[in-house]
Amino acid sequence: MTDSSNTHYAGQDLEALADLPRYTGWILEQFQDELRGHVIEVGAGIGNVAIRYVDRVESLLLVEPAANLCEKLRIRTVGLKNVVIAEALLHDVAPELVAKPFDAALMVNVLEHIPDDVAVLTRLYEVLKPGGALCIFVPAVPEIYGSLDAIVDHVRRYRRAELQGKLEQAGFVVKRLSYLDTLGIVPWVVAGKILKRKKYDALGAQAYDRVGVPVTRALEAALNRVLPRTPIGKSLVAVAVKPG
Q1: Quick one: CA torsion of 72, 46, 86, 120, rounded to 10 degrees?
Q2: Which of 18, 20, 214, 238 is 20 to 30 A from 203 via CA?
Q3: Which of 157, 163, 154 has the alpha carbon at shortest distance from 139?
């Protein structure tokens, strides 16, 4: 995701995917009961997600190691008195910033970039209070890994059982774990596996946000009326709790 020093993020996906209100809102709806109180978001990027929920929480620590992204993140959150930014990897965040246990932690499209994902999950377990929630959104279905994954250095796409196992290995109790965005698999496969594109298409993403998101939401709502859970999707959503 970044260079060897973790100080620069070279991908253009964050800018290309910045204006997706329906998609981002759909993600955050999955965590609306958990994102409250004292919250930490790891891999905050340029604030595409944080800016949409910051007014719901008491305080928010945004952790982002890439200096070029932090510069934009600071501009985007200027004047927000409940926000603190830590330009660091999670394990290197100043101790005083994580001294008070968090009510919730959030990672959106971040965990898949990290080689030792269990170490990060374990660290998040440590900084959460007992009963605190970890909210995770990651790409799913390893079989659709393609050029769009490779250009942003995705280490993996997750299987459902794999993500559950790693959360439990870190000490969490999985409360919810489900697929999201069933129809999103189609454009991802076309762009990344068939056309092997090397750049994210902002206009295509915005078109999917306007048309594809409402359609796939309706499809999944219908599926969930007859099935215990959505059978497959481009991403996985997980809510895991620290016992206590």
Answers
A1: -150
A2: 238
A3: 157
- Mean pLDDT score of the chain: 93
The tokens for 89 are: 């990897």
The 10s digit of each residue's pLDDT in 110-142 is: 999 999 999 999 999 999 999 999 999 999 999
Q: Is 156 helix (H, G, I), strand (E, B) or coil?
A: coil
The structure's pTM equals: 0.93
Among 48, 179, 63, residue whose Cα is nearest residue 114: 63
What domains, with CATH codes, occur in the chain?
Answer: 13-241 (3.40.50.150)
Residue 120 has which token pair?
């990060």
From the list 156, 43, 178, the residue with the least C-alpha distance to 110 is 43
User: H-type helices in the chain, by residue range?
Assistant: 13-16, 21-29, 67-77, 117-127, 147-150, 160-169, 185-189, 202-207, 213-226
Secondary structure of 44-62 in HEC code, one letter for each residue: CCCCCCHHHCHHHCCEEEE
Residue 242 CB partners (closer than 8 Å, separation 6+): 125, 128, 129, 130, 131, 132, 133, 134, 171, 172, 173
The sign of the dihedral angle between the CA atoms of 152, 5, 106, 12 is negative
